[in-house]
Specification:
heterodimer, A: mainly alpha, 2 strands, globular, B: about 475 residues, mainly alpha, about 75% helix
Chain lengths: ~525, ~475
């Protein structure tokens, strides 16, 4: 009985446990920094354990949402506390729960001021992130989507670097403009369907288009899409990202790149494609072109960055361009690759930000020209850095490859030119990442300040070993993840009713092959 | 026909209790020593509590009183409760303020109560003449309150401006009533409704009447282009008075707008919709854009309150366009949420600004967040709620209004409104930025919050989160009130 009760509220507990941690921290004296760090770490680890339990307990053969909880919340307008997960959201929850303890560990010694508030906001942010992914009610989704901005705003604005205030404001205003229009879209959907419940809307909306103005679907698509495109961020909306990343503290950058950007692509998969299939098909060429521009442009700009953090930030623009390209290929390979790439990018880019943060802790600079020859003074650190760099550029057997491969296959079926250009993006990624690696780690130690740097301590090794293990696991044996994605990816593709004939090209085998082939 | 029934007294019992306490305070004032004036504040609070208790008997006898001039219905009850809340919070925030700034006179408390009486009559009466009397009672009381710091030139300026422009506006309102009477032969709202319904060819003079009345009311709610007085008056008036001004008379004027536009002039809805629609867009946009440039907290909150009036007007436009009681109830909900946030923030600022309100510049709060975490956190909640961040009342209020507007097919208006609310995030967060993200020594007062003020702040914060998380039961109350507006 007790067990089934716990099971009934499983997702709620998972979602709100970090918030409970934040509340417990609120009651600790601010001077007890050590205790605060440990409380934060323990709460985030328990959350991670629950997320892993959800991942294991998830039934990959069952389509639709699992661990569903539905309770009425507000009666008029009817708003429900309605949550549940499918493969897509499950993976992103796991990612959020994985990156939060790492961020807490990474901030262990780099955050000394206002420690209490820092961890409080970080845990509150985790609840916001998980909440976004579990919500099955448009209103609830919107609440989490907006609320989550506040802790992130404080993380950037209080603990960031020199231009932190500018970056924090830019971050919040950009996101809010998008979400304001999305709110209008949500309200319009409510007017049409009389509910905020995503599952009911998914069921009823297809039969309602004929009674609406012809342009309604396109406008609704845009209202949602712009909000998500800003969050991703896609090419013309990306300008907030480099500022936010560069100014944010390490933990902020990790969460921002690792999870927050994924909310944009998650939104496209969860709302844009299934709710507005016709408009998605109509806009797919434009979106794909923007995605390809993002891939190439992000890579070229990353190449010329003197600042490592900025380089990684622009590489995110390029990588997320891949994800969007995969989604709007509108076939199962593209979609499944996109989802996989979301998780994979979260891990690799999160790891890159952590590594750059570790360098910053040592030298208090991130300029590439300040470094050189670090491989001799920091052998362990440079090995880890190399593995993560390779994973980010999509080396086979590491996590980046599986997703990019599937996306390019999907894009090829949509339009071969996209795939060709995206492949150019892969090459460019290799260029800017390896070139950076070469300048930072190879050659003679030219700057005497770099000679006697301490190599990784136990805490850093722990973080990096965990990350590298995940990178290897995701690259070598992606099947446990891909299996859980099948149903959701297939459902998205089926709803959007792709014109592609490649529906039959089953992804798990494709993904498996990706892993097999290199073995 | 007798002049009135005994039950009529019960139907205006809250007003009678308030007026009784106001008179009692003025009578007692000379007998209370300079040190004991605060006890008059407590007496005024008792008066508010008594009036709140008397609404119980009032609700027992719904119906018209005094030959159909006052209506004791749920709509009136809703607003009376709202005004009592505003009065109570203002009084709680005033007592220590008046002591600190050495202007602790008994009249203050009596005037707050009298202004509340006027507001209650504005919301409860269904007769234009009585509405006008209520408007005048509340206006004259607030003119005096605005200038309550007699030796402060800013406060004097505030009072003079408010009085001069306010009397113009009420004159316009009265002129509108005269026109209405001239055309229809009645000043009773339900008779007006019937008359305008019957005569399809209502003369264009009725449009003039509506326009004139709107001018008067738009002044009271500080809707563009009648908002010019607002920043100066709000800045100059003592901050607890500003708290009262920015919510009480405004909500009362909105109640009148609802009664006049949705009941009395329901037959002229195309004209009313056009008026409100234009005014809503201008009010939101101008309020928000002007607020971006302010450096003084009271002044930027003044512009923010103009912007909020604009959102309320969006709800009213939706109510006129759709005629649904849900739209009306979104307006009622908004006014309560707005009251909690705005009174709360102004009385908190009143305290933090220090003796003589010296520190009201935004820069005075530099680094305040980590000096005084508690007070800064309260201020942050007020700002986030005003900005419309979810889990707080401000968000739900906006959400309901926008939903009503979308439902009434006012999509363009809603888009303007949501974009405006994004703009507003910028300036609300500016105070948060200054408090938490800039290094420096805060000038703002670090004196502990007095007990009465803490109670008021706690009530506002609890209210903000209650309405923001569990709005259901309160919304039912607002819905019930909205249904009675007929």
């Amino acid at each position: 009985m007790a067990e089934s009760m716990a099971f009934n509220y499983f997702l709620t507990v998972l979602t709100f446990l970090p918030l409970a941690g934040a509340l417990s921290i609120a009651f600790i004296r601010p001077e007890a920094a050590g205790r605060i760090r440990w409380v934060a770490l323990i709460y985030s680890l328990v959350t991670l354990a629950l997320a892993i339990a959800a991942f294991v307990g998830f039934n990959p053969n069952q389509s639709g949402f699992q661990f569903v909880e539905q309770y009425p919340w507000i009666s008029s307008p009817p708003i429900g506390y309605s949550i549940g997960v499918d493969g897509l959201s499950l993976l992103l929850i796991l990612l959020s729960a994985f990156l939060t303890p790492l961020s807490i560990l990474a901030s262990w010694s780099s955050i000394h001021t206002r420690v209490k508030e820092f961890y409080l906001f970080l845990l509150a942010l985790e609840t916001g992130m998980i909440g976004v992914f579990v919500s099955l009610d448009l209103f609830l989704f919107f609440v989490f989507w907006e609320v989550m901005l506040i802790p992130m705003y404080f993380l950037i604005g209080v603990w960031g670097h020199e231009r932190r205030v500018y970056a924090a404001i830019k971050f919040i205003l950009y996101t809010m403009i998008g979400s304001a229009l999305m709110l209008v879209g949500i309200l319009y959907l409510y007017k049409v369907t009389g509910t905020f419940d995503l599952q009911i809307i998914l069921r009823d909306l297809p039969g309602m288009w004929h009674s609406l103005p012809a342009s309604a679907q396109a406008w609704l698509f845009l209202a949602f899409f712009v909000a998500f495109a800003i969050k991703v961020p896609m090419f013309p909306f990306h300008t907030w990202l480099p500022d936010a990343h560069v100014e944010a503290p390490v933990a902020g950058s990790v969460i921002l790149a690792g999870v927050l950007l994924k909310m944009g692509t998650y939104g496209m998969l969860r709302f844009c494609l299934p709710l507005f299939p016709q408009a998605s098909r109509d806009f797919a060429p434009i979106v794909s072109v923007l995605a390809v521009i993002g891939i190439i442009y992000g890579a070229l700009v990353a190449m010329v960055q003197p600042d490592m953090k900025k380089l990684v930030a622009y590489s995110s623009v390029a990588h997320m361009g891949f994800v969007v390209l995969g989604i709007f290929a509108l076939n199962i390979n593209g979609v499944e690759g996109a989802i996989y790439q979301m998780a994979s990018h979260g891990v690799s880019t999160g790891a890159l930000f952590l590594l750059v943060g570790m360098l910053y802790d040592r030298r208090h600079t991130r300029l590439i020209t300040e470094f050189g020859g670090l491989a001799t003074s920091l052998p362990v650190f440079s090995t880890f850095f190399l593995i993560v760099t390779l994973s980010s550029l999509g080396l086979p057997m590491l996590n980046g490859f599986v997703g990019e491969f599937l996306i390019i296959v999907g894009a090829f079926h949509a339009l071969a030119v996209y795939a060709a250009l995206a492949a150019v993006g892969v090459v460019l990624a290799a260029v800017y990442l390896l070139w950076m690696y070469q300048r930072v780690f190879f050659g003679e130690v030219t700057n005497p300040k770099n000679r006697d740097l301490p190599d990784c301590d136990a805490r850093e090794k722990l973080i990096l070993v965990v990350l590298v293990l995940v990178i290897l696991w995701m690259g070598i044996y992606p099947n446990p993840i891909l299996r859980r994605l099948d149903a959701s990816a297939a459902q998205v593709v089926q709803r959007v009713g792709s014109t592609s004939t490649q529906m039959a090209a089953r992804a798990p085998s494709g993904g498996g092959e990706g892993g097999e082939r290199v073995r | 026909m007798s002049l009135f029934q005994p039950t009529d007294i019960v139907r205006v019992l809250p007003e009678i209790v308030l007026a009784g306490f106001a008179i009692l305070i003025m009578v007692l004032d000379p007998f209370v020593g300079a040190r004991g004036k605060s006890s008059l504040g407590v007496l005024a609070l008792l008066g508010v509590a008594g009036a709140a208790a008397s609404t119980h008997w009032m609700s027992q006898v719904p119906g018209m009183a005094f030959n159909g001039t006052v209506s004791a219905d749920n709509f009136s009850l809703y607003f009376i409760h709202l005004f009592l809340l505003v009065a109570a919070l203002t009084l709680l925030g005033s007592v220590n303020y008046l002591e600190r700034d050495q202007i602790n006179h008994g009249e203050f408390y009596a005037l707050v109560l009298m202004a509340t009486v006027g507001m209650c009559f504005m919301a409860a009466s269904t007769e234009l003449i009585l509405i006008f009397l209520g408007l005048e009672i509340s206006s004259i009381s607030t003119y005096v309150l605005a200038g309550f710091k007699r030796h402060n030139t800013q406060s004097n300026e505030s009072s003079a401006k408010y009085f001069l422009l306010g009397s113009f506006a009420t004159a316009f309102f009265l002129y509108g009533i005269a026109f209405t009477y001239g055309v229809t032969g009645s000043t009773n709202l339900s008779e007006l409704n019937a008359h305008l319904d019957r005569s399809a060819d209502w003369s264009s003079l009725i449009s003039v009447a509506l326009l004139l009345m709107f001018v008067g009311l738009a002044f009271k709610v500080s809707a563009v282009p009648f908002q010019i007085w607002t920043p100066d008056v709000y800045q100059g008036a003592p901050a607890p008075v500003t708290a009262f001004l920015s919510v009480g008379p405004k909500a009362a004027a909105f109640a009148v707008i609802l009664r006049v536009f949705l009941v009395g002039f329901a037959g002229t809805s195309s004209l009313s919709l056009w008026l409100i629609w234009v005014s809503a867009i201008l009010t939101m946009s101008l309020g928000n854009l002007a607020a971006l440039w302010q450096t003084n907290v009271k002044r930027f909150l003044a512009y923010s309150s103009i912007a909020h009036a604009g959102y309320v007007l969006v709800g009213i436009a939706a109510a006129i366009a759709s005629g649904s009681s849900e739209a009306t109830s979104s307006v009622l909900f908004y006014l309560t949420a707005y009251a909690l946030m705005n009174v709360g923030v102004f009385i908190l600022i009143a305290h933090l600004a220090g003796p003589g309100e010296r520190f009201t510049n935004i820069d005075d709060f530099t680094g305040f967040g980590f000096d005084r975490p508690g007070a800064a956190a309260c201020l942050t909640v007020f700002m986030l709620s005003l900005a419309g961040i979810p889990t707080m009342a401000g968000f739900f209020a906006k959400f309901y209004v926008f939903r009503a507007a979308i439902h009434a097919n006012l999509i363009g208006l809603t888009v303007v409104a949501v974009l405006n609310s994004v703009v507003s995030v910028y300036y609300y967060l500016r105070l948060v930025v200054v408090m938490y993200m800039r290094e420096g020594k805060a000038e703002a007062s670090t004196a502990d919050l007095p007990m009465l003020l803490s109670v008021a702040i706690a009530v506002s914060l609890i209210g903000i989160f209650y309405l923001g998380l569990l709005p259901d039961s309160f919304l039912a109350f607002a819905n019930g009130a909205a249904k009675h507006l007929r």
